[in-house]
User: Which sequence fits this backbone?
């Protein structure tokens, strides 16, 4: 008997137990103290087995916990753009951002970098002229610009709204301003509570027992997911793919 059939039998068994428990309370309320506690114990026992062995049920419980508690997560976002742009592109980005957002505040600016506040995002842009390198070849003549949004706090329920309505439009403005040839996007998500994806692999061990833990999943060579003890790391080659991947993993709905 394979694991899926065993889990299905356990699932049916717990439904039967819940049914018996509900009927006994409805029809024989006085006998609840005599038999109800025993039935409830069996339900909790079987529920624990399903929680430990069935990932879908595990993530369903985790989803409920995070939706109810609405814990904060901390995001570190970065993007690396490559193209034929130069240091004047930073001014162009600032001009385009000013057209789309009100109350933009420049914190500091140099010839090759700028730090600014856009709504509740604190953004840093750094330009690198690869053509000045003595090791420059035809293969690496594209210049680089890196975008950072670090230490951004967002609640679990606000994750999708932040991704779709705040982060994606801002990144699209930067991309269009540059004329990007290549791009890579990184999103590190730190959970205040124990990382729920950590529990998929080692849920029967406590955090104190684990010094370090890393799992890397490569999908189609353009999407990478990394799970460590304290965070979830997503890496893609486009903002659209990052949003799609985040919509699954940040809502704990991958399974």
Assistant:
């Amino acid at each position: 008997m394979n694991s899926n059939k065993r889990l299905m039998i356990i699932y049916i068994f717990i439904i039967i137990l819940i049914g018996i428990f509900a009927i006994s309370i409805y029809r024989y309320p006085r006998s609840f103290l005599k038999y109800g506690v025993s039935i409830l114990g069996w339900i909790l026992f079987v529920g624990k087995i399903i929680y430990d062995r069935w990932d879908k049920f595990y993530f369903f419980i985790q989803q409920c916990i995070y939706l109810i508690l609405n814990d904060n997560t901390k995001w570190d976002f970065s993007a690396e753009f490559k193209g034929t742009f130069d240091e004047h592109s930073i001014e162009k980005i600032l001009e385009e951002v000013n057209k789309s957002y009100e109350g933009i505040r420049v914190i500091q600016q140099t010839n090759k970098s700028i730090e600014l506040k856009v709504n509740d995002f604190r953004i840093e842009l750094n330009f690198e002229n690869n053509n000045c390198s003595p090791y420059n070849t035809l293969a690496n003549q594209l210049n680089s610009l890196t975008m950072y949004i670090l230490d951004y706090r967002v609640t679990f329920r606000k994750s999708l709204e932040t991704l779709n309505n705040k982060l994606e439009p801002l990144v699209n403005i930067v991309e269009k301003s540059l004329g990007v040839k290549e791009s890579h996007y990184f999103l590190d998500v730190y959970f205040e509570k124990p990382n729920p994806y950590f529990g998929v692999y080692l849920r029967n061990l406590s955090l104190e027992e684990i010094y370090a833990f890393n799992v890397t999943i490569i999908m189609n060579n353009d999407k990478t997911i990394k799970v460590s003890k304290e965070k979830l790391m997503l890496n893609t080659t486009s903002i659209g793919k990052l949003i799609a991947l985040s919509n699954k993993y940040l809502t704990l709905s991958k399974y």
User: Anything to note?
Assistant: Residues 133-139 have pLDDT under 50 and may be disordered. The CA atoms of residues 171 and 239 lie 7 Å apart.
